[in-house]
Amino acid sequence: MSIRILGIETSGPLASVALLKDGEVQGMKVGEFKVTHSETLMPMIDELVKETGMKLESLDAIAVSAGPGSFTGLRIGSATAKGLGMALNKPLIHIPTLHGMAYNLLGHSGFIVPMIDARRGTVYTGIFTFVLRADNTIDFEVFQDTCVMSIEELMERLELLTSLDGNPPPVVFLGDGLFEYHEKIDQLATFDYQYAPDEAMIQRADTVALLGQLFFYHGMTVPADQEAPDYLQKSQAERVKEEKEQK
Amino acid sequence: MAKIKKEKKLNRLYKAKEKVGGGITMLSIETSCDETAAAVTVNGRQVLSNAIYSQIDLHTIYGGVVPEIASRAHIEKINQIVQKALDDAGKTLDDMDAVAVTYGPGLVGALLVGVAFAKAVAFAKNIPLVGVHHIKGHVCANYIEYPELEPPFLCLVASGGHTHLVKAVSYTDYEIIGRTRDDAAGEAYDKIARAIGLGYPGGPKVEKAAHNGDPHAFEFPRAKIAENPYDFSFSGVKSAVLNTINSYKMKGIEIDEKFQADIAASFQQDVVDTMKERVLMALDEFGMDKFAMAGGVASNQTLRAALKEAVEGAGASFYCPSPILCTDNAAMIGAAGYYEFINGKRAGLDLNAVPGLKLE
Fold first, then answer.
1. How far does A232 lie from chain B, in Å, by closest CA?
2. Does the interface predicted TM-score (ipTM) exceed 0.90?
């Protein structure tokens, strides 16, 4: 039996969609800068379905990048996935955006550190790695799961983690948070590091679909009506209210 | 060219279906502000279901609608509300001939949830999608309430976000005669309610307080706009109310229930008078014999009664939907969507939310 997954990624500045069949990417569409995800997402799915000849009804599940990221972007992807899931009667797969990004570097043995700008001097980030086991399987290990952190705190954490290993492989940074913070990293790093190659730099729908397939194997699906993004931040109004109450 | 031909053919098919009594069954979705709503309608005027999830409790503590909170609540509730609308109607998505969705005006983040969801459903079910103007939806709520009503008629749309005096020229075309220069009528009610300590939402609270007040206790200014006598302005009356409150406070006079009631009644009298004046003037100038109200503020019983009396006194017929059709709801989007649909309007998969969508 073959497994077919539609991957949707709208958390960052570039939206993308991908169709996966038995672990093979059948096709991927990437949007354009300066055109809203709202305008590009559905036409891309339409093209993808037409070009691959894959029937929507034959999908097993729809994997959606669930955050953190742009609030509006996340909701466009989520609402689209929820509408497709309801109309097609298919389950959704809730993919943590930073895990999806780490899978851009599947197999890398050093620490993988994706980052998305969270404003006010902080990033949405995490620390992950892939471990090759003796039986040739690869495990995804989470040292720090998705969180909001200042860049300084993140660098301290990495310094500690790398110091525990005599000769660690380079840390790899990726994500559009680097546009804002690469100089800070260059300045603060006390360990060997590199930036991800261009094609692995930002969120991609094909890795969302790939990770989606893995989740699907493990039965980790959600009904369409239960899916919602993980924003990791409260709304501005809620934050202001809480600050006032603390005073 | 081929596409146009295909659409014409489809329109003929839909018309034929209508003639044999099949009717156009439509799913409609509305998420422009703080109501997550879905409905199932047949031929626009027959409402099979009208499901609404009101988020008002989420926003009350902030004294108004918080856009980010509204958008988050929409995404959490959209599937359940659409499912409820289908269940209440005894239908499934497979029974739908088309999907209609509000794409503006409204809060962009809130609109986007409905638009993205509606596009996905229409695409997956391979049925046409229609984008609907929110204000046209409010006007069309009257077609649901009054099966005999036909355009043209004059309509006053007043809500928390809009105040428009429009001519419904046809089922799909509108001419704006007047609009507010500053606050919407409902927004003015909210601000007055806050100033006299009644809280949010202001509309029903001010109306309730006004019952026990003297509408002539204070004479607030009746706004007049030189360039267009049909335009509204509520900032003048709002300032006058705030000044009155301040002068009382400075004199050390306590703001008691009597004062609240008098302020509320006098403010409401101001709104009633300015609306009445414009409506009567427009009926006369444009030779219209039908007048309809729409929007959340049309739920205000005092305003309804005053405009009914004035309009009927001028020899015109008066229309106003039930409160459930005045508040933001999706049945009205189904009514407006149906008329856009049979007029051949279709939205593409690139339909976007347009927060400042124009009416004309």
1. 12
2. yes
